[in-house]
Each structure stands twice: as C-alpha cells, then as structure tokens.
C-alpha cells in the first residue's frame, strides 16, 4: 500500500512539474498556406525535361526524354511553432506539406511522405550579454543586399550553428557560422575503406551600419570529402564543379578533401532617400587544391537602384555581370561556384531553391510567391544582364501589381560547352536555356497581381513570358535547338497567412 501511495505521489509531482513547465512556456504559431493552379508551356523552352543525375555513379537521364505536364495544381502548408521559455530562450519547429493534387493516374492520394520537418532549432542569448546563438535545422544564408531576394551563393534551411555578437552597438556586429551542407553516410560509411563523405562551410561576416549606409563584408571557407554525394544525393554539382571533373582525364578528384573559398561584400545606400542603391561584389573558387581541370573560379557583381518617393508605384532598375567559361575545359571553369540545387534536388525551377532574383523576374529562380513551377530557372552565373521593374503599383485599394522586364546574355564560350557536350552527351553541368553561350540571349516579361480579400488572405495571379534567341545547334544539337520556342506561364491561386 505504501509503495502504491509513493507511486501516486511521484506521478502527481511529475504531472505538477509538467503543468508548471507548460504554463511557463509560451507557444506562438505562424504559418502560411498556398493553393493554386499553374499553367506552364515550354519549360526549358522545349517542353521537355532537362538532364538529371540518376545516381552518384554519374548516370544521366538525358534531356528531351520526357514531356511536360502543362497544368498542375499545387498545395503547400507551412506551420512554424515557437516554444518560448522567456525573452532569451526559444525553440522553433517548422513543418511543411507540399505537393501536387493527385498522385499516380487518376488518384487524389497523398504522397508517401506528406509531412516534412524543414526547421527545428534552438535559439537563445548567452546569459548576461547580447550574444545570440542558434543551433539546429534553420535558415542559413550568405549575406546579399536586400534588393536581390536572397543569396546567389547559399540560401537554405540547413543544419548549422550561428553566433551573432554586437561589437559596437547599432553599428558593427560579428557573425560566425558553421553549416553542414552534405552528410552522405551519417554515422557509418558503407565500407571500412570509405573516404570522407561530408561537406562543411565556415563563415565570418561583419555587418556594418551607419546612417544612410549598410555593408556586410564576409568570407566563407568550405571543405568537402571526395566521397560526398554531390550529384544525385545533394544536388550541388551543377553549381560547384567544373565540367573538366568528368570530361578531362584523369576523371574524378585528385584529393580526398576538396577546399573552397568565397569572399564578398554587400552594399546598401539610403543616404539619398527616396533614391536607394544596392550592390554586391563576390569572388569564389572551388577545388583550390585540385587539378587545374577540376577548379571552378569566378566573379559575380550585381547592382540596383529604386525610387521610393511615389505613393502609387516604385520604379526599379538592376543589372548584373558574371565571369563565364573560356574556350578550354582543361583549365577548369571560370564560372563562380555556388550551391545551386540542380537536378539532384529536382531542378524544376521551384522557386526559393536558388534565392537570388532581380525584380522578381520570371527568368530567375526565387522570389515568386506561387513557388512551384514558377520560372525559367536561368542561371545568372556565367551571364550578364539588366532589367527594370515597376513595383508596388497600386491605383486600386487592396490591389498591388508588378511589371518586370529582364534581359540575360550569355558570357560562356561556345567551344567549352560544345566540347563538354561532345564528351558527356546531354548533361546537367550545361543545360540549354539555363546556361547561355556568348551568342545566346533571353528576354522575359512578367506581370503579377495581388488582391487582398482580407488582411491575411490574398488572391494572386502571376504571368510570365520568355523569348530566347536562336540556340546554337552546334552546341546543343539540332533536336533540342530546333524544338525551342517561347515559354508562357499563368499561375492563379490563394495565399493565407496567420
């Protein structure tokens, strides 16, 4: 009997402690829901698939082997729950459901995995000071000026540790970060002779703020193992490696560890408000300790200006320039390396996978509100371009609109791409319409509208048109080049936020 009473008392104490902990923890929930239809004609300008890695051995699904479905209905729900102990400590859990209506032929079933955890991290301040620390699966981004939607280098939800400390209050801060972009084998490798299969990055940034001016100089050092799943598993290969890795002998990496380095700065000038100016200068190299043919090294520069003095619209202009491939594959790649989520991650231009965008253009991935199947996915790396936008156009209450024109011209030598395609065949490193030669260009126009039915419910329509120059038959082959036509998109649906 005494033992029973002790168990009852112990259970009561545990329950009391649980209720007190629950009472002390505040839970705040935010999120959003999208439901929309998407008509998209001539993805990749052909209406056919682009090349895709099928496994880590380098097997490729060739371009032009599958035909697009021009109309899809997408639904996405995201819920972010913050479990707040006090002003200094919280934990965030983010879950997501995202897929098309219908799975399989004439079905409306859920996919095999219908709920995904996309954020799970702890955030707190170190006791007695203003140092902020966050650790776990969280948003991590390389600094980029705010006009361009997100980083051209890396912008993902990823396992990471981020430490931020003010050095001079309101003027200078220090940010240190560690990210693990690839963890191919987890605890144990499949053999006892396997080489390192992870990839990590270490970032230092110094955000500077003075009246009318902001800048964030930064540097990122990366190291990846030879056994990392760069192709199908992580899908970073299109942005990080040179075609020489596969197309020139000796095939493959030289070292077990591959190093990389990036450096750059953001710039934002508001001293002349309502005129505002933005810019970024970035340099990067991947495979620093590798054969010349495996190195990828280049620059990327962007700039933008806007006038915010009008109440009914905001005119904007932007431009960018990036180094491109020279005529040789054996000396490596001259395109700036970046973590481009290519064919290994789907490569279907799903918005937000590569976050950089200018003017929310239909040509670039990232920035669109109706995200899946939202754009042409043209790479600004290895190209130059310019554009203009009329943003925040509002002549009718609750209705806002945006009109954007963009022009992109390739900066890559035809010879280098032709050689890689001759050796590898159709491949994900160079994709027609995404990677432009110096003799190719694309222009695009998009007109987007948002009408607020309620404060937290919007009716959205996004439209886009893209027109290419003639693609080079000698580079891409007659079959793909002759198939190319203008691309069109119309998306229409609802966005609910809470």
TrEMBL record:
It comes from Solidesulfovibrio aerotolerans. Keywords: Signal. This is Outer membrane homotrimeric porin. Residues 1-23 form the signal peptide.
């Amino acid at each position: 009997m005494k033992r029973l009473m002790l168990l009852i008392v112990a259970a009561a104490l545990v329950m009391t402690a649980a209720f007190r902990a629950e009472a002390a923890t505040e839970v705040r929930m935010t999120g959003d829901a999208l439901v929309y239809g998407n008509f998209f004609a001539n993805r990749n300008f052909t209406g056919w698939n682009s090349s895709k890695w099928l496994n880590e051995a380098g097997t490729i699904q060739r371009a032009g082997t599958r035909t697009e479905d021009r109309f899809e209905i997408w639904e996405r729900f995201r819920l972010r729950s913050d479990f707040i102990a006090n002003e200094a400590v919280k934990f965030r859990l983010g879950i997501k459901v995202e897929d098309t209506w219908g799975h399989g032929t004439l079905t409306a079933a859920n996919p095999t995995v219908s709920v995904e955890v996309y954020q799970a991290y702890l955030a707190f301040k170190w006791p007695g000071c203003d140092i902020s620390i966050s650790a776990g699966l969280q948003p991590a981004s390389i600094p980029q000026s705010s006009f361009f939607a997100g980083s051209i280098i890396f912008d993902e939800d990823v396992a990471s540790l981020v430490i931020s400390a003010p050095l001079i209050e309101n003027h200078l801060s220090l940010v240190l970060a560690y990210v693990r972009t690839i963890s191919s084998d987890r605890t144990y490798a499949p053999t006892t002779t396997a080489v390192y299969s992870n990839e990590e990055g270490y970032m230092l940034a110094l955000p500077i703020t003075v009246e009318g001016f902001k800048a964030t100089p930064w540097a990122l050092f990366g190291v990846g193992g030879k056994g990392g799943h760069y192709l199908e598993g992580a899908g970073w290969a299109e942005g990080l490696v040179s075609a020489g890795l596969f197309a020139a002998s000796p095939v493959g990496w030289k070292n077990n560890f591959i190093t990389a380095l990036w450096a750059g700065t953001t710039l934002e000038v508001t001293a002349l408000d309502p005129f505002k100016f933005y810019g970024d200068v970035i340099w990067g190299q991947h495979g620093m300790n590798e054969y010349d043919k495996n190195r990828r090294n280049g620059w990327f520069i962007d700039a933008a200006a806007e006038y915010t003095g009008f109440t009914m619209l905001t005119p904007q202009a932007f431009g960018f320039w990036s180094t491109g491939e020279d005529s040789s594959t054996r000396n490596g790649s001259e395109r700036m390396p970046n973590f481009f989520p290519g064919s290994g991650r789907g490569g279907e231009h799903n918005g937000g996978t590569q976050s950089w965008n200018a003017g929310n253009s239909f040509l670039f991935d990232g920035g669109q509100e109706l995200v899946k199947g939202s754009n042409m996915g043209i790479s600004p790396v290895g190209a130059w371009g310019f554009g203009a936008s009329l943003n925040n156009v509002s002549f009718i209450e609750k209705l806002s609109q945006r009109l954007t024109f963009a022009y992109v011209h390739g900066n890559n030598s035809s010879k280098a791409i032709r050689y890689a395609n001759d050796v590898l065949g159709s491949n994900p490193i160079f994709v027609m319409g995404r990677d432009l030669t110096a003799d190719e260009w694309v222009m695009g126009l998009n007109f987007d509208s948002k009408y607020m039915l309620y404060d937290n419910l919007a009716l959205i329509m996004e439209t886009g048109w893209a027109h290419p120059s003639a693609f080079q038959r000698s580079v891409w082959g007659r079959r793909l080049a002759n198939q190319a036509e203008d691309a069109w998109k119309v998306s229409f649906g609802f966005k609910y936020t809470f």
